[in-house]
């Protein structure tokens, strides 16, 4: 009987290992790159045999890729908008779509800049229509009552990372990005302002499992791994664990 139980446990162990033998294809918002790479490293180290292939871009561009049939098991969005878009289109398992982190919207300028207000900037980098950071920026500026005054100064970037690069290189006098992106480049950017949260909808990052994935078991395990990440890890990368009332 004891021998039988040992064999049974061994078979179960082999089954568990084989469940993680496939490749997880992850389409994630570029603003989460450092955090997700950290999570992937821990996940693969813990489970051993799993391999995760990451595709980083703007949330909207990734949503368009998934809609067009690009291979993906997990989608990570920088906004509820694009996650809901794919859920409504039938590309994401509805119950799997959950927020896991949040961050702030900030105004940054080049490190040596003497600008003290966004109204002094001649070239302002913001996200384009596919990048959620652009939607948050426009909403914020409209609520501040300065959108129309500044609209002609905007230069539109495809990703939040590109905004940071343009500001660091002086191709933009100012840029509106996530605090989590400022943290990555704080030695090359000056933080001018943290916009109050009541000026825009909550900036939440969402994770969901792509419907029809052939690797659903591993995808679910990776999603749970992200959802169970501690707040201290999120804060290391400029994020905060999402508030319960936003779930």
Task: Give a short synopsis of this structure.
The chain has helices at 2-19, 33-47, 59-67, 80-89, 132-144, 147-150, 160-168, 179-184, 216-227, 231-236, and strands at residues 23-29, 51-57, 74-77, 98-102, 105-110, 124-127, 154-157, 174-178, 189-194, 204-209, 240-241. By secondary structure, the protein is α/β, with parallel strands linked by helices. The chain has a six-stranded mixed beta sheet.
SSE pattern, N- to C-terminal:
HEHEHEHEEEHHEHEHEEHHE
Q: Total domains, how many?
A: 2
Give a short account of the largest sheet: 6 strands, mixed
Binned, the helix content reads 40-55%
Question: Averaged pLDDT, please?
Answer: 89
Please work out how many helical segments DSSP would assign.
10
Q: What's the number of extended β-strand segments?
A: 11
What name does CATH use for the topology of the largest domain?
D-Maltodextrin-Binding Protein, domain 2
Computed CA radius of gyration, to the nearest angstrom: 20 Å
Low-confidence stretches: 1-20
Categorize the overall geometry: globular
Straight-line distance between termini: 47 Å
What percentage of amino acids are in beta strands? Answer: 15-25%
How do the strands of the widest beta sheet line up side by side?
A: 2-1-3-10-4-11
Oligomer: single chain
Structural class: alpha/beta
Classified by CATH, the class of the largest domain is Alpha Beta
CATH superfamily of the largest domain: Periplasmic binding protein-like II
CATH 2nd-level architecture of the largest domain? 3-Layer(aba) Sandwich
